[in-house]
Amino acid sequence: MKNIKRSLLLTAGLILAISCQTKAKKGETAESGRQATAPQMEKEVPQDLSAYETAYFASGCFWCVEAIFESVKGVAEAESGYAGGTEENPTYEQVSYGRTTHAEAVKVYYDPEVVSFFELVQVFFGSHDPTTPNRQGPDRGPQYRSIAFYENDSERQIITAYMEALEEQRVYDRPIVTEVSPLTQFYKAEEYHQDYERKHPDNPYIQNVSVPRLNRFKANFQDFLKEDIH
């Protein structure tokens, strides 16, 4: 992969001109080192998110993706969940075992006066490898595939135009395999998954996969970060 920060910034100008797979049982560790332990405290959520716009993305382990988007200024909240499949009310055990057509995904609540949907698309592509089919880091399977969801035609055009620009500039050494799909349904994940990285800093998967991934994003996108994020 080439210099992603420089290439993505060039692409932004162009556009504007035109194994997270666990055994699924709480406490059981996966080959990748991920271990899902239910916390004792509930997720602290703003009381009213109705004034915010929403965006949906899937790019591997939702623990990692949630933490990345919550570091972005203008993002009020990010929720871990499941999307991209047809089964109703999927559970973590079903999705993580690959027993559904869903992917681990996040729902992002954001203030469009502070951060645009286009900038969230930049965050999405800049924080994972969109060239690896059914895989992100140590996590393998279609439940970890890359998907950019859209809720209207304007969002679809933003996503596809940005992908085309990335391909034209040869930002990646391999073709982008990200799915561009309409958002049909998002199922919020079990409460113990919400804010998992913050609540479980000593988890081996968090230390070895999630935190390094977040730190790479923060190093390349400093202008996108909230003031209290270091």
TrEMBL record:
Its EC number is 1.8.4.11. PROSITE patterns: PROKAR_LIPOPROTEIN (PS51257). GO terms for molecular function: L-methionine:thioredoxin-disulfide S-oxidoreductase activity; peptide-methionine (S)-S-oxide reductase activity. Residues 1-24 form the signal peptide. It catalyses: [thioredoxin]-disulfide + L-methionine + H2O = L-methionine (S)-S-oxide + [thioredoxin]-dithiol; L-methionyl-[protein] + [thioredoxin]-disulfide + H2O = L-methionyl-(S)-S-oxide-[protein] + [thioredoxin]-dithiol. InterPro entries: Met_Sox_Rdtase_MsrA_dom, Met_Sox_Rdtase_MsrA_sf. It comes from the Bacteria. HAMAP family: MsrA (MF_01401). This is Peptide methionine sulfoxide reductase MsrA. It comes from Robiginitalea biformata (strain ATCC BAA-864 / DSM 15991 / KCTC 12146 / HTCC2501). The lineage of its organism: Bacteria, Pseudomonadati, Bacteroidota, Flavobacteriia, Flavobacteriales. The gene is msrA.
